[in-house]
Structures are given as structure tokens and as C-alpha cells.
Amino acid sequence: MEILGAVLERTGAPPPFAGSRPLRVTTLELDPPGPGELLVRIEAAGLCHSDLSVVDGNRPRPVPMLLGHEAAGVVERAGDGVDDVRPGDRVVMTFLPRCGACPECATDGRLPCRAGSAANAAGTLVGGARRLHRDGVPVHHHLGVSAFATHAVVSRTSVVPVDGDVPPDVAALLGCAVLTGGGAVVNAGRPRPGEPVLVVGLGGVGMAALLVARALGHEVIGVDAVEDKLATARALGATAVHTPASLAEAGLRAPVVVEAAGSARAFETAFAATAPGGTTVTVGLPAPDARSSVSPLTLTAEARTVVGSYLGSAVPARDIPRYVQLWRDGALPLERLVSAHVALDDLCSAMDRLATGAELRQLVRPHEGTPS
Hints:
Helix content: 25-40%
Mean pLDDT: 96
Radius of gyration: 20 Å
Shape: globular
């Protein structure tokens, strides 16, 4: 079938991307789903820094590639062997498929799946196939999802079904921002009842961490260099907010600190703000050559722990229903993370806005607007 999708033609294009236009909305051919795969009509897809890091070259990926890894949609067709998801079901699409058989999958989410990671690096689905083509030439998949399009073919292991009462905007956010930010708190940080949580970096992932921590009854301190985000954090329930400078001046420290900015300086801020005996959780993805400086003596003398958490150390099939129930109970207002809706042909400008830190989560609605 023919679909419309935003293809990344080259990496490392200079900003502003609205001028250099590394993404181009184009017609592609999409193969039908193979065994163990699904054809999904995309309803909403979120723009994340993981997309931006592929565009700017910080996360090298093969091109041409159809971007987009955080999304929700409705199943239109199931391939052979898929009998637990049916046409008409709404699904959350997640960017790390899990085979369930490798040693990494036995770590309860701590380590990413070996087969899923290899497929993501190669730009294929888990079975090694590429279902996308343009003029007969294969186009790479982005993290097994490729959601900046009207439709996608994905592995069954890349989706989690949700009930129809979960709207597309909320369902999309569950696939990355909430799994990553919420999981940094729930799975990696594991604050004790009543312990405060400090979040450094208040983008979509950091704000999701804030919301999940608040939903679980924790006080939250929000930290960001952008003043507007501090006001938003207050509105979302942060007990206190600080810039990195005012945090250091106040000398505040917390037993669980989540770093969600993806920069060396943010990691150092988070480490310095971690209390004795506490845990620093880092979920941001800095540039590959970024380096931070910490004191090994502090780790020993203060009995500290530093934890790296990829995708929030999540098991999506286990964790997404937990977040859905918190949303359904009114404790997790995920709709408030959506800062804008954009059409496919506005993606380059949306990437520019994301790079400035001015947005929380922009959501693409692929069936709205026309390519320019």
C-alpha cells in the first residue's frame, strides 16, 4: 500500500531545520505485515529528543530512515501468528521490542533486549525485515516503529494494547515519555514512601517523571534552566522549582534524583543534588563524546548509587497498564504534557522548537495537513 511519511534523508544537517529540511514528507510503499507483525494506522506520534538526536547526528542511524518512535494507533491488519491483537484495537507503540528469550530480557527491564537492540541499530524490524520502500529502494525503520507516517508495520512485540477509552494523545505518550520518565522513578529510583524526588531537566520525559512521582504521593523538586518550564512544573504539582544555580545556592539534596536532560552538566547537577545514601538515575541521552566529572570518594563516603536507566528500565506490557490505571483514576493528567499538535509537513519547524527547549511534547497527527 502507499503511505505518506517523513523520511530523514541525511543526518547532521545544520539548524534551523526549517531551512535545511533534512526531513521530507514523501510517498512510500509499505509491505503487508509478515508473520508476527501488525499493520497500524497511526493516530498520534510524539516528537522526542531521541528523534532530534538522530536528525542532528548525535545518535547515528542509517538513512534514509522514516522517523518517529513514540506513537499510538489502531490495528488494521494482523499477520500470521498474531491472535491476541485484532483489527480495531488501539495499541501503544514502544521503541524497544522484547523477544522474551535472551538473557537481557530476563533482567526485569534493567537491560534492553539483545535482539531488539540489534534490529534498532540496523534499522529493521525484529525479524530483520524492512517493510518500507521508496521507488523500489528500502527505507530504514526507526526503532521498530517509524511513526511519522500515516501507517506503520511493526512487530507484535513493539506494541501494547490499551482499551478504547484511552485517547490517542495519552496513548502515544505512554510509549516513550511516560515509560522512560515514570520508569526512572518507579523501576530505577524506587523512592520509599514519603521520600521526595528531584527531577533535573523538565522536557517531556522529565515532566512525565514529575507527574508519575506526584501520582504516587511524592513531593517533587523540579530543576531546569528555562524559567517557563519551572512555571509549568509548578502548575503540574512540583513542590518547589529551581534553576541549577538556585538549587546549588539553596544546597537542596534529595534521596532520589532523576536526570532527564541528556547533558553532561545536567548529570553533574543531578549528582551534586543527591543526598547521602541516595540514588542518581540518569535517563537522558547526551552526545556520545560528552563527559562528566564526579568524585569517586563521594560514592564511597556517602554510600551513593548511580543508575543508568534505558526506557525507564521498563517492561512495557507490565508498566503501561499501571500508568493507564493511574490516568483513569485521575492521578496522572498526561494530557497536560501536550504542548502542541503539528502536521507531518510541519515536522522540520517542530524540530527547531524542540531544540530550543520551548516545548514539552508536540504530537504529530499524520492524517491532518498535506505535504508541502
